[in-house]
Amino acid sequence: xxxxxxxxxxxxxxxxxxxxxxxxxxxxxxxxxxxxxxxxxxxxxxxxxxxxxxxxxxxxxxxxxxxxxxxxxxxxxxxxxxxxxxxxxxxxxxxxxxxxxxxxxxxxxxxxxxxxxxxxxxxx
Length: 124
Description:
Layout: H1 13-20, E1 27-30, H2 47-54, E2 58-62, H3 68-83, H4 88-99, E3 110-114
Parallel strand pairs: 1-2
Antiparallel strand pairs: 2-3
């Protein structure tokens, strides 16, 4: 995460939850490296998974390292589709297609976590 001036500030899922709990979002996009990646030994679930466990219905996170420019490009396309009223599933597909013609290919990296309910139920 970042502080108010844009400097790196590590936070735990619990700390982020405490900051969001009074105004819990229906969707959270953790656009930082490895936020959708758990530890291979099974000792810790991913940051994104833990946020779903805390009560956010839909959480997106990157499974691997992602460049700032790549994450920004993908995120811009995703939010543009969401702002147009397109559901999260279709918005993700559109964003992937929109950036698919570039040299950046994020689809093996982005992961979506839900509380078991269809993601589009929350993001229309």
